[in-house]
Amino acid sequence: MRRMGISVYPEHSTEEKDYDYMKMAAKYGFTRIFTCLLSVNEPRETILKKFTKFMQKAHELGFVVGVDTNPDVFLHLGATPYDLKPFNDMKVDIVRLDGHFSDREDIAITHNSYGIPIEFNGSSNTALDLMIERGADKNNMVVCHNFYPQKYTGLGFDKFMEFTNKYKALGLPVAAFVSSNNKNTFGPWPVYEGLPTCEMHRGLPIDLQVRHLIATNKIDDILIGNAFAAEEELKSISKIDTTKTILKIVLSEDVTDDEKKIIYNYPHFGRGDASDYIVRSSLPREDYKNKSIPYRKYHKEFFRKGDVVIVNDNLAHYRGELEIVLKDMANDGERNLVGRIPKEELIILDLLKPEYLFGFIKQA
Of 214, 243, 272, which residue constitutes the final position of a domain? Predict the structure, then answer.
């Protein structure tokens, strides 16, 4: 089941602010926390005490907590790939390895006696397949992409999918980061330009970032990389139907009530016998065999990518079919324009595969 998460950086905040943020996120159904030990520069005992308290509070609120580590963090805390006692003492749920040990140690850590899942860096070409072949415990391995504080350095989407597909093919859960657009957000490092995994997401509305990752059908957990996201952002994510690909639509001014019912009240699946020109959702046709959808004049010669149309009475056999235009298509009078998918939302349309379930955000 897909989880939504936030990031919390206690070394750059206060307990009160962190806990208030955690409570707010929990209210909106968030269940995972990412935090970072790479940037914590405090004595070992201070870290153990502070983070044990942090974990307790997070668990009380229903969160699963993953901590970012590397070999230096292990050394500082007195942990080794063969002994994760310090992390177990802090009640850590997931140990993320931002850096690696030797091949043998990376395999051994997946067999830790505490059963703590080990999270590997998904934004690199890590030989997890070879590790599994050599005896790593696949059931105790998960994957999480990096985030990128510096502008223009986030993963290109094709590379992101290349890495993601590699690890999903191994049957491993994969997490990735989106970024809040709230003012004065921060992460573990003194850079403040957002913390997405994919560069194309930087600056986009956060619900669009999330819906885009869901549309890949590959990402299991989605984490907000920077803190603190605005309550309105958390609320917008909580409203997303994570079970299918969801698109925004701007309705035409003359759209009818029947057309609205077709848009919003039916489950939509792109047909498997897919066209290059349109995504076809044929299910509404059955109910509109004997109902009228009057022709409504549309003055433009062509429908364009992102136009949403419904077949009208002029093509009665297909009447009621909802279609999303993928490439320029002549307006022959057989379809009514009922709305348009906004330009920035077309990145989701590009991921919509034949037979995938999709829907639309209801326009207020």
Answer: 243
